[in-house]
Amino acid sequence: MDRSRRYQDREVQCRVTDSPSAMAALHQKQHHREEGDKTPPAKHYLSLKWAPPKLTVDAPGWDGDIPSDDLDQDDVPGQPLLPCATPDISLFHTPAGYENTTHGRPSIVPPPDDHDGIHQEQDHEFVEVTGVSETEARDLLLNYVSQQCCYGKAAAKNMHIMTIQESHSLYYKLETFAEGRTTSWTYEIYLGQKVEGPLSGKSPLPWEVSVKPDNMFENQVKRVEVPYTACVKSCYVCNATGYNRCYKCLGRGRIRCKFCGGSVHVQHKDIFTRQFCSGCSGTGRIRCRTCHGDGRIPCQICDGYRQLKWFIELCVQFTNHTGEHFVDSTSIPHDLMRQAKGQIALQNGGKRVKPIDSYPNTEICEGSKKLYNIQVNETVNEKILQQKHTLHVVPVAEILYAWNGKIYKFFVYGHDHKIFVPEYPVKCCWGCMIL
Ligand SMILES: [Zn+2]
Ligand SMILES: [Zn+2]
Ligand SMILES: [Zn+2]
């Protein structure tokens, strides 16, 4: 496609250039305005924007490739096509430490060696946990049943409690809060904003840029411009013209009338005569509504402003890696167990924690070590900021009882004596339906 003529666009009031001296003059003007220059701002940037012409256009302004014939309305795409041009980032100045940075695909920057990363030896002190009183079991079940509209009290009142078996369920949680960093060349429309390039200073290395999370142990993404990497370039899609070929009419400004198919005449249904098509006023073509007949539309990348500010963007992703391990022989759902009020047998945190290795229940020690290794693998390209782990011990009483010749069970768990009843013998849902 011959784009050379685009630069001769008669509507451009101000010629666009990449020459450093011209851009320096632009920045100088902008700088004066920011410094408190009282003169009205120059219309320099506004006049750079390309705008489509008025509604009535008889001849398309697009001067590049066009198809040899009109297109049918149904043939043309309904949505703008994404530009296929790609920017040549090899023309940009790449500071040290950013050699692998590309456009469109984030480049992972592994963290520098972390010598503080070895966990300090921590003594795990575990708290003794007391059990649940057996005598409360019946009252708890009665109370529970009374709150269920369809449960009869008979079984709870008259059940024969066979055994009450007390145990503890263990709920272990390990969290590793880490940050990962990626870089990529990105751009924004240039509207005269601040541009600090390599001449203004030396860019810090990716892990030297200070970015802090708002809250610890919460996922968050922060994006910042790496200092002194910016430059202004002509838009790589429209070559600084501000417009592209209309995606509807492909530059012709007209499309074939769908009523007469371009034949100018239409056949009347009842009368065997032909008449001029009213859809196109007998011309066989209609003006493209997308470009109003001009064949050009504002560039989707620069929105008509012709220039882009390019810079290296640092993306910092804070991730809270979380793992849980339950040691629980009951059928109490884990969701309930997470909310249960238990005793905290262990809770500590720091730059690194040490996996549990001395708890009497070896399953917890194995679970802690396994989760620790998983999270170390997950954070291989990240920098660990904090770790913490907690071991909850939840007292559980499993009550077996007989009613009407059958055996049932329920659980009382937690210090606040929550009850979990997987099945109850006296239910009468018809009562609710009648009410
Ligand atoms: Zn027509
Ligand atoms: Zn068009
Ligand atoms: Zn553009």
Q: Which hetero ligands occur in this complex?
A: zinc ion
Task: Compute the average pLDDT.
Answer: 79
| Continuous helix count | 7
Q: How would you characterize the largest beta sheet?
A: 9 strands, antiparallel
Give the number of DSSP strands: 15
The N- and C-terminal alpha carbons lie at a distance of 78 Å
SSE order in H/E notation?
HHEHHEEEEEEEEEEHEHEEEH
Radius of gyration, taken over Cα atoms and rounded to an integer in Å: 36 Å
The structure class reads: alpha+beta
The helix fraction, in percent, is: 10-25%
The backbone outline, from C-alpha atoms, is flat
Low-confidence stretches: 1-44, 430-435
Strand content: 25-35%
Region (Disordered): 1-44
InterPro entries: SSUH2_homolog
Organism: Saccoglossus kowalevskii (Acorn worm)
Biased composition (Basic and acidic residues): 1-13
Describe this structure in words.
- With 435 residues, the protein is of the alpha+beta class.
- The protein has a domain of 177 residues.
- It is 15% helix and 28% strand.
- The strands form four sheets. Strands 1, 2, 3, 4, 11, 12, 13, 14 and 15 form a nine-stranded antiparallel β-sheet that branches. A two-stranded antiparallel ribbon has the order 5-10. The protein has a two-stranded antiparallel sheet with strand order 6-9.
- The longest helix has 17 residues.
- The radius of gyration is 36 Å and the shape is flat.
- The structure holds zinc ion (ZN) (3 copies).
- One zinc ion binds next to loops.
- InterPro entries: SSUH2_homolog.
- This is Protein SSUH2 homolog.
- It comes from Saccoglossus kowalevskii.
